[in-house]
Design a protein that fits this description.
CATH architecture of the largest domain: 3-Layer(aba) Sandwich
Number of domains: 3
Number of strands: 13
CATH topology of the largest domain: Rossmann fold
Structural class: alpha/beta
Strand content: 15-25%
CATH superfamily of the largest domain: HAD superfamily/HAD-like
Oligomer: single chain
CATH class of the largest domain: Alpha Beta
Number of helices: 8
Helix content: 25-40%
Order of helices and strands: EEEEEEEHHHHHEHEHEHEEE
Distance between the termini: 43 Å
Length: about 280
């Protein structure tokens, strides 16, 4: 016989016992109990505890890496945009495209001291900015316009993690208001949720915010959002996978939690693996 620390996840499974370690959300060991186990192999099964937040009236969520896989954005949305970017030439009469093109010309001059002379010049720089994943408003605008066509004709379905739809429904039913803050345009946000694999999720969201409100790593942006919601920042819980965004939101006074989805490194005091581990008290 030998002494080990932990708690049993299940009954004896010949020839193994499964040992469950209770892990706090910051991956530190919570509490361990002495338990005698016969000589056998031990299988360690990590477990993230739920995080409880108090006095929350509003949940503000990021998309990429939070509700939606990063792979969907980089392996589906971005390639689709670059494949279809030439279609912008036939869309130049649209007001949104004209505004985005003018903003692109201005930004090219201010950011790169480069004067764009033609539609082809504009399309080429937008293509490059997309390869660099630049968080630039006119790029996000035209991406949303082209993605809309893909969603509408069934070529694209918005990815959401399996538990997201049920969590949104639960939170809304409990009286919480929900909103989205993403670097993608508001139009693109509505497309992901409106044409998601789980159906139309847009009725769950009361507000959408994008980079026209401000940068996601800027504290004043979160202050502005709280003001627009007519709430104290402390009444807002912000969900994201990005530390710099969580820092900005926390500095503004919001409550925060990091989503540690596959491929995300846990580097924030409050972390959860998915939405089921978020409890609002």
């Amino acid at each position: 016989m030998r002494n080990v620390k932990g708690s049993i996840l299940s009954n004896f499974v010949s020839p193994f016992f499964i040992l469950l370690f209770n892990i706090l959300s910051n991956n530190s060991l919570r509490r361990i109990e002495s338990l005698e186990i016969p000589n056998s192999e031990l299988i360690i099964v990590p477990y993230l505890c739920a995080m409880t937040f108090k006095n929350v009236k509003y949940i503000l969520t990021d998309i990429e890496g939070t509700t939606t896989s990063v792979k969907f954005v980089y392996d589906v949305l971005f390639p689709y945009f670059r494949e279809h970017i030439g279609e912008l030439r036939s869309m130049v009469a649209l007001d949104e495209v004209q505004r985005a093109f003018k903003q692109t010309v201005d930004l090219s001059q201010s950011l790169e001291s480069r004067k764009l002379q033609s539609v082809d010049d504009i399309i080429n720089i937008l293509y490059r900015w997309s390869q660099e994943d630049r968080k630039i408003t006119p790029l996000k605008t035209v991406q949303g316009l082209l993605w809309e066509k893909g969603y509408m004709n069934g070529e694209i379905k918005g990815h959401v993690y399996p538990e997201v739809a049920d969590a949104l429904k639960k939170w809304q039913k409990s009286g919480l208001s929900l909103g989205v803050f993403s670097s993608g345009s508001i139009a693109a946000q509505k497309l992901i949720f409106g044409y998601s694999e789980a159906g139309d999720l847009t009725p769950f969201f009361a507000h959408y915010f994008d980079t026209t409100t401000g940068g996601k790593r800027e504290t004043e942006t979160y202050t502005k959002i709280a003001d627009e919601l007519a709430l104290s920042p402390s009444e807002v819980l912000f969900l994201s996978d990005i530390t710099e965004e969580l820092e900005a939101a926390q500095t503004a006074g919001m409550q925060t939690v990091q989503l540690v989805r596959p491929g995300t490194e846990s580097n924030w005091p409050q972390t959860v693996a998915d939405f089921t581990e978020i409890e609002i008290n």
